[in-house]
Amino acid sequence: MPDRIPVIPRIPYHGRQPVIRKEARARYDDLMTPYKDTPRDAFDLLPSRVNAMIVVALVSVSLLAWEGSIAQANSMRDMVMGLGQIGHRTQGSMGAVEFFSMWITMTAAMMLPTIVPIVLTHHAAALRREDSALSTPAFVTGYLFVWSAIGFPVWVAYQVLAQWGDAAAPSRWLLALAGGMLVFAGLCQFTPWKRRCADWCRRPLTFTFIHDSEAGVGDALSAGVVHGSYCVGCCWAEMTVLFVVGLTNLAAMAILLVLFLVEKNWKHGGAVTNVAGIGLILLGIAVLAYPPLLAGISN
Q1: Which of 14, 135, 201, 255 matches a 20 to 30 Å C-alpha distance to 281?
Q2: 3-state secondary structure of 215
Q3: CA-to-CA distance for 83 and 242, rounded, in angstroms?
């Protein structure tokens, strides 16, 4: 277990003893130990039918969001949404409401499947505390709130982008900015901040003990906000790739979804993070060396 995260002996529960059969209670207590603290182990905390219900719920919302993102991408097919599209598409601008609708939809589509283990762990702890049925939805709401709030600086950056016309397309500074952002995103994969945030994402039981051990909907909402903050810390640099290739670039969104899912939930996620970092650095260098590549990966 990484030194940055303390060893936790057991998840406690607060309040009166929940109504759980003796054999089920023993199962929870046996499984909720730091020796079983990986995303995969989260699936052992609850009965398979409960796991299935939570997974289906999160994936269903994600699929609905993907449907909305596809519709949005098609409606903005001819509109500049990234640095690499300047000079190749029509310059336009979106209002705040339209932009945030797009941003919230696309982040829900990309991120909800990646948090299945932490939601399962939260739900197991909530059952042990006999929390309200709204506890788990509150946790997910808090998580999504953080990603929604991140949309504000993205919208500000987009407003700046919307001011750059076709004359900026052949400029070396635009190419340098795009290539530099890709290299920067790659370098961020090797930072201690990235490793620390990814560690928290990969330790659902430890996170739940420290940040989600209190009962109540309000505390579940707060825990969701904290986990969302760690998730943003883990993934924000890679998300800047969308600002280069297009915020509604469906192929890039799908690649990032798979990358986040593997980084946060596979036992070799750290190695995948390093490979992705090297790939982004090489892609940034290639864009700087061969300018037509930028338009090719952005359309």
Answers
A1: 201
A2: coil
A3: 9
Nearest to 148, CA basis, from 96, 197, 202: 96
Query: Does position 33 have pLDDT exceeding 60, yes or no?
Result: no
Residue indicated by tokens 């598409």 = 89
Measure the CA–CA gap between 137 and 224, rounded to whole angstroms. 10
Give the up-direction half-sphere exposure of residue 225: CA atoms within 13 A in the CB hemisphere.
8
Q: How far is CA 212 from CA 4, 104, 135, 242, in A?
A: 18, 24, 11, 32
Question: Residues near 136 by Cβ (< 8 Å), separated by ≥ 6?
Answer: 54, 119, 122, 123, 126, 220
Q: Is the model's pLDDT at 17 over the cut of 60?
A: no
Residues 118, 123, 128, 132, CA torsion sign: positive
Higher-pLDDT residue of 84, 249? 249
Give the chain's end-to-end CA distance (angstroms, integer).
42
Question: What's the pLDDT band for 236 if we cut at 50, 70, 90?
Answer: very high
Which residues lie below 8 Å from residue 128, measured CB to CB, with a gap of 6+?
11, 13, 18, 20, 28, 32
Contacts for 277 with CB less than 8 Å, ≥ 6 apart: 186, 187, 188, 189, 190
**Residue 243 banded pLDDT, cuts 50, 70, 90:** very high
Token pair 């289906």 is found at: 56
